[in-house]
């Protein structure tokens, strides 16, 4: 029997029958008039979840980040971020294109910046320099391999930012993975930030959408930019219902994804030639190095794909696997068997 195990991303998750049922029966209205009850319910739920005055549903994680950065900045400003961050690498140069700002990437330790590093990067007041306006962090950190930002470090950076008049933005696309793993509440994380984003269409398994939370003035500006970017939503309650369902039913189960990632990591570490340290796998993302003297990451991924195992090559020698709600323990064991066969 052929099996497909899709570990390319947690974005590949499909809505199950109960989620579809919730979506089919969602109460809807015209959200541009503020009249979609399900959109309003989701936004109120998220504002409360993050302990913020307001929240806004947006079509994607990228739009959540870009509208937030736009609302925080003036053209010519600078945003401190991490070298491997999504806003620096995978958002099409959006900050330059949409907000007229530049990014100032710093190399973190497995994606995590220190307050000292951030402090050293803040521009002194000088006519030559851009104005440092925002510090943007990512939790969990995608390209570092699902790394959780330590709360103590977040607080140190946030305190520094407060003292220096900088805004704090969190790309929390996978924040719930950190929440479930650490037991630290979303509100506790969000307290250190002026803006927080989170995606419903990753590990939480909803088909579409992300949220931005912050104070009411900030969210009003984000709302305006969402409209500018063509993100006026009409009967979006249909998709917002999927997000609400995900928040109510799919948060705690992220622990299963973490257990599956650990199982995968431990199995891979035992395969000769593959390099990874399972103790560094904290959530649902497993990054590993392939034996590049024998084959490239692309080549190995293609051979695995022929056997129904899908993963994402992220460089010539590195592959990313992301566990998600479509994948169970047997799938992980199957994936490991295919590795052993291909690399035998
Ligand atoms: N990440 C995707 C790809 O774009 C790389 C993935 O498969 O991991 N922030 C973070 C930390 C993300 O990982 C992503 C998506 C986003 C933002 C953007 O979300 P979308 O794809 O909804 O715009």
Describe the protein.
There is one protein chain. With 344 residues, this protein is α/β, with parallel strands linked by helices. It has 14 helices and twelve strands. The protein folds into two domains: 17-249, 3-Layer(aba) Sandwich (Aspartate Aminotransferase, domain 2), CATH 3.40.640; 253-343, Aspartate Aminotransferase, domain 1, CATH 3.90.1150.10. It has helices spanning 17-24, 37-50, 61-72, 86-89, 94-99, 115-121, 151-163, 175-182, 186-190, 216-228, 237-249, 254-269, 297-306, 329-343, and strands at residues 5-6, 54-58, 77-82, 102-106, 131-138, 167-171, 195-199, 210-214, 285-289, 309-310, 312-313, 318-322. It has a seven-stranded mixed β-sheet with strand order 2-8-7-6-5-3-4, sandwiched between helices. A three-stranded antiparallel β-sheet has the order 9-12-11. A two-stranded parallel ribbon has the order 1-10. The protein starts with a strand and ends with a helix. The model has no long low-confidence stretch (mean pLDDT 97). Ligand TLP binds next to helix 3.
């Amino acid at each position: 029997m052929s099996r497909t195990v899709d570990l390319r991303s947690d974005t590949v998750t499909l809505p199950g029958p109960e989620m579809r049922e919730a979506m089919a029966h969602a109460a809807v209205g015209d959200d541009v008039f503020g009249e979609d009850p399900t959109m309003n319910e989701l936004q109120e739920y998220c504002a409360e979840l993050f302990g913020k005055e307001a929240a806004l549903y947006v079509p994607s994680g990228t739009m959540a980040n870009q509208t937030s950065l736009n609302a925080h900045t003036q053209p010519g400003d600078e945003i401190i971020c991490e070298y491997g961050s999504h806003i620096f690498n995978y958002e099409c140069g959006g900050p330059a294109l949409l907000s007229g700002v530049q990014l100032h990437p710093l190399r973190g330790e497995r994606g995590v910046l220190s307050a000292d590093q951030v402090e050293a990067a803040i521009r002194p007041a000088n006519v030559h320099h851009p104005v440092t306006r925002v510090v943007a962090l990512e939790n969990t950190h995608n390209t570092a391999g699902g790394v959780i930002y330590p709360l103590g470090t977040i607080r140190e950076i946030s305190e520094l930012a407060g003292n220096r008049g900088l805004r704090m933005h969190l790309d929390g696309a996978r924040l719930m993975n950190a929440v479930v793993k650490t037991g630290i509440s979303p509100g506790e994380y969000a307290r250190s930030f002026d803006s927080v984003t989170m995606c419903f269409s990753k590990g939480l398994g909803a088909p579409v959408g992300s949220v931005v939370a912050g104070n009411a003035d900030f969210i009003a500006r984000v709302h305006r930019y969402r409209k500018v970017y063509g993100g006026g939503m009409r009967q979006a309650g249909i998709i917002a219902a999927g997000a609400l369902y995900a928040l109510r039913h799919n948060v705690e189960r992220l622990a299963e994804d973490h257990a599956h990632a650990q199982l995968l990591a431990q199995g891979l570490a035992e395969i000769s030639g593959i390099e990874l340290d399972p103790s560094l796998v904290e959530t649902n993302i497993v990054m590993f190095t392939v034996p590049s003297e024998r084959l490239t990451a692309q080549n190995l991924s293609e051979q695995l794909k022929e056997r129904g195992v899908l993963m994402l090559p992220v460089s010539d020698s590195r592959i990313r696997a992301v566990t998600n709600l479509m994948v169970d323990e047997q799938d992980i064991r199957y994936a490991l068997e295919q590795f052993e066969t291909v690399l035998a």
